[in-house]
Design a protein that fits this description.
single chain, 339 residues, alpha/beta, five-stranded parallel beta sheet, globular
Length: 339
């Protein structure tokens, strides 16, 4: 197996890139997703003890929860190289063949949004994952012939935000399957404090918690909000993030205390005031708020559903009692009034 030195805190160029992107460089620095982290660490330890490649890994869950970060950590823990691509980019079998034949023994190939890979390409992936071979066609017409290429034993790490769109043959070829869930505010609080240290930002514990509670359970959003609050604190608050400073900065960004941003509120208001609380189809909502249906389904709806503002039904999306309460109206009323 190809070996590389494990990640360190030395400020070499690769580490600078990790620090800039705020990614942890070891499992010990990865906060949250405790069960997923424990399973992956166990699988890595067992594979290294047997001097084998790691089983293929499937990571699913909403965007921004750390799927790409975990792929980096797996490569670092296995002491091997990581190659990154995405499903839509692999347009034809030749693209996949080029990626696979460039791998060295033990390497990790990370395919983001693997559910969007072309079906014709996916069929070539079956043999590559199971038997570590790939058949490619040479020439066309009567002279066409197939050549089988042996591949080094590699690990495929697939990431998807919509695991239901994966075909059964592909899903069953992953030996390790994990779903990432939204983070608790306490975990995001720790992530924000770590990121603040990397960014040389002074943040009080209460200020970090204020950001964490408005981050929709998502580390990517938490880090992005930290950057924006840092800008506000630098210009208007003596470069210190307190709870009050965080509250004022996030309010200026139209992010309320429940973590709802402007688009969240537009979606909910559309359902409540334009369609009397639903049911209403996602395509109709998309036209109403000027957003793509896929973006609403993949980015906004999961959080709104988990927090109890929205329900999916066979007839469409329906506002919940909590949604009515959030906007101060009674079920059946389109105009705000006191409860």
């Amino acid at each position: 197996m190809s070996q590389v030195p494990p990640p360190t805190r030395e400020l070499n160029q690769p580490d600078r890139e990790f620090e800039t992107s705020l990614r942890p460089v070891a499992f010990s620095e990865f906060t949250g997703q405790n069960k997923v982290r424990e399973r992956l660490e166990l699988a890595v330890e067992a594979a290294r003890a047997r001097s084998e490649s790691l089983d293929h890994v499937l990571l699913s869950g909403p965007p921004g929860l750390g799927k790409t970060t975990l792929a980096y950590l797996l490569a670092g823990a296995m002491g091997t190289h990581l190659k990154i691509t995405s499903g839509p980019i692999i347009d034809k079998p030749a693209d996949l063949a080029g990626l696979l034949t460039s791998l060295e023994p033990g390497d990790i190939l990370f395919i983001d949004e693997i559910h969007r890979i072309q079906k014709s390409v996916e069929e070539y992936l079956y043999a590559a994952m199971e038997d570590f071979v790939i058949d490619i066609m040479l020439e066309q017409g009567p002279g066409a012939r197939s050549v089988r290429l042996d591949l080094p034993r590699f690990t495929l790490v697939g990431a998807t935000t919509r695991s239901g769109l994966l075909s059964a043959p592909l899903r069953t070829r992953f030996g390790i399957t994990n779903r990432l869930d939204y983070y608790r505010a306490e975990d995001l609080h720790h992530i924000i404090q770590r990121s603040a240290g990397i960014l040389n930002v002074k943040v009080e514990s209460a200020g970090a918690m204020e950001i964490a509670q408005r981050s929709r359970g998502t580390p990517r959003i938490a880090n992005n909000l930290l950057r924006r609050v840092r800008d506000y604190a630098q210009v208007r608050a003596d470069n210190v993030i307190t709870q009050d400073v965080a509250d004022r900065a996030l309010s200026m960004l139209d992010i309320d205390r429940n973590g709802l941003d402007e688009m969240d509120k537009r979606i909910l208001e559309s359902i409540l005031f334009k369609f009397a609380g639903g049911p209403v189809g996602v395509n109709t909502i998309a036209v109403s708020v000027g957003e793509e249906p896929g973006t609403i389904e993949e980015v906004y709806e999961p959080y709104l559903i988990q927090e109890g503002y929205l329900q999916r039904t066979p007839k469409g999306r329906v506002a919940t009692p909590r949604c009515y309460e959030r906007f101060g109206i009674k079920p059946g009323n389109r105009q705000p009034e006191l409860l």
